[in-house]
Design goal:
The chain has 300 residues and is an alpha/beta fold. The chain folds into 2 domains: 8-180, Rossmann fold; 184-296, Dynein light chain 2a, cytoplasmic (Beta-Lactamase, 2-Layer Sandwich), CATH 3.30.450. The protein has helices at residues 20-28, 66-73, 77-81, 99-116, 137-148, 167-180, 184-199, 223-235, 237-245, 282-296; strands at 8-14, 45-52, 55-62, 84-92, 121-127, 156-161, 203-210, 215-220, 251-255, 259-267, 270-277. Strand 7 and strand 8 (215-220) form a beta hairpin. Helix 2 packs parallel to helix 4 (99-116) and helix 7 (184-199) packs antiparallel against helix 10 (282-296). The chain is elongated. The structure holds guanosine-5'-diphosphate and magnesium ion.
């Protein structure tokens, strides 16, 4: 089968009720954790398309009942595992009895992936971290990493996640970045952002977010400060989105004690955010951010 023109796949897999559909909805569809509380088991698989910075990809949310997984790694293996860019395996931390079963299927899935999409990136999420006492998290992750790591040499990215914490946005942002980083636009966008940051002393950082709040690009050396805006941004997202609806060119800004964040819609699904030290007049920062938006408009 010719897969050259097909969008790459992001496979979400793991046992039933581990949280796959919740992760998809919260991270890629902008739903709140409260909205996904009553999700029913996914039958077979659900496909949804997403395009970020001109990179189309397809999210396969695979049902987690053992009967489905057996088929995915059995007779449907080629259909499921070809053309995959990223496999995200979700392990429910709170269901210790099922961890061995999860590992068994993970190993099988990884073997199929190696056969049909040898360059795919693998993430293994130890999920529902919010149900674990903060003091014991590091130890639990360490134990699970050891348990899940296959004997053969291969790169697997392990992360502890929860839809109630910013960990889920951090890891999905990494995943999205990995999906688009191959495109030539991605490289140019990074360069444009870096150029503006270097030439404008007041601009500490510039980020591009999806409308769900995932940071796709983050440039600047205030890495920690950029993470604060991600939260601030998320907590203000509803309001900002309402305001964006009133105008396609809407700009808004948030201020903290020493920083200004300017948000501007670049395209329906991409929002540009500039972070500036408060020493500069707001008007100046707004003009600068217009220049950034202008430089990016043919790239996103
Ligand atoms: N405590 C907690 N519950 C979660 C989390 N993610 C998902 N859930 C819950 O786990 C249940 C199963 O989630 P679902 O997304 O349907 O799992 P799936 O079968 O893997 O698609 C739902 O009740 C979710 O609300 C999480 O991070 N923490
Ligand atoms: Mg599901």
């Amino acid at each position: 089968m010719d897969t050259a023109d097909q969008p790459k796949k992001l496979l979400l897999m793991g046992l039933g009720a581990s949280g796959k559909s919740s992760i998809r909805s919260v991270a890629f569809e902008g739903k709140s954790p409260e909205e996904v509380k009553d999700y029913k088991a996914t039958i077979n698989y659900t496909r949804s398309m997403k395009t970020i910075i001109r990179s189309p990809f397809e999210i396969f949310d695979c049902g987690g009942q053992k009967s489905f997984i057996s088929v995915f790694i059995g007779e449907q293996a080629e259909l499921i595992f070809n053309n995959v860019a990223i496999l995200v395996w979700v392990v429910d931390l709170s269901d210790f009895d099922q961890v061995s079963t999860s590992k068994f299927y993970f190993k099988n899935a990884v073997n199929k992936l190696k056969k049909y999409s040898p360059n795919a990136i693998i993430y293994c999420l130890f999920h529902k971290m919010d149900l674990v006492l903060p003091g014991t998290r590091a130890q639990i992750i360490e134990t699970l990493v050891e348990f899940f790591t296959p004997p053969e040499q291969m790169e697997i990215h392990y992360r502890g996640t929860s839809i109630y914490e910013k960990t889920i946005y951090k890891v999905t942002a990494e995943i999205v970045q990995a999906m688009i980083i191959q495109s030539s636009e991605a490289k140019t966008i990074s360069e444009v952002l870096q150029r503006f940051i270097e030439s404008t002393e007041e601009l500490a950082g510039i980020a591009l977010y999806t409308e769900e709040g995932l940071p796709v690009f983050e440039e600047g050396d205030l890495a920690d400060s950029i993470l604060i805006p991600a939260n601030l941004w998320l907590s203000n997202l509803d309001r900002i989105q309402d305001e964006f609806k009133t105008s396609s060119t809407y700009k808004t800004y948030l201020e903290t004690d020493n920083l200004i964040f300017v948000c501007e819609r670049l395209k329906s699904e991409i929002i540009l955010t500039g972070i500036a030290k408060k020493v500069a007049p707001l008007q100046y920062i707004l003009i600068k951010m217009d220049e950034v938006a202008n430089a990016l408009k043919d790239l996103v």
